[in-house]
Write a structure and sequence with these properties.
single chain, alpha/beta, Rossmann fold, 5-stranded parallel beta sheet
Length: 174
């Protein structure tokens, strides 16, 4: 069974993206999924000197190392991810520089990357999806799927779409 970490961030922790994350988690085996609510974690911004306190970023790094599937979950805000998700992704640069955790950064290559998102539009924003194309490409993560739920007329996720997405999480080969 594939292990999945979900990195979730939203200005509304009980909003549509949270609802989407919870529906995905309900379809997965609890021992094979870790939810990391980014907005509740304490971690420093990326800094060029690579001088950091022992913060929650290392908990996140351990989860990235543990997982086969890495799922980024954020609503679309002005064509982008939430501010804390962006801060986390900036901090992930440390995975390429800090000798202690650099093996984790190199170990991301070949893992499966996914995105969960919601917005007030029918289609996902190309700038938003392009951001993840670049992020996954940089780390060598396989861009394995994006699930966008339009919420302009209520939360519009079909059971079939949810099942297809979670089946993909289960079935991807390492």
């Amino acid at each position: 069974m594939r292990k999945t970490v979900i990195l979730f961030s939203s200005a509304n922790k009980n909003g549509n993206t949270s609802k989407l994350v919870n529906q995905v988690i309900a379809q997965l085996h609890s021992e094979h999924v870790k939810l990391l609510p980014i907005d509740e974690l304490e971690f420093s911004d990326y800094c060029y000197s690579n001088q950091y306190a022992n913060d929650d970023f290392y908990l996140i790094s351990d989860a990235l190392n543990w997982a086969d599937n890495i799922v980024f979950a954020s609503p679309i805000y002005w064509h982008s991810v939430s501010s804390n998700m962006k801060r986390l992704i900036d901090r992930m640069t440390e995975l390429t520089e800090n000798p202690t955790i650099k093996p984790i950064g190199k170990g991301l290559k070949g893992k499966q990357g996914y995105v969960l998102t919601t917005s007030a539009h029918e289609q996902v924003c190309e700038i938003f999806s392009g951001f993840f194309d670049k992020l996954f490409g940089y780390f060598g993560i396989n861009n394995s799927g994006l699930l966008h739920v339009p919420c302009n007329n209520g939360f519009a996720l079909t059971t079939n779409t949810l099942n297809q997405f979670t089946q993909h999480l289960h079935s991807q080969k390492a």
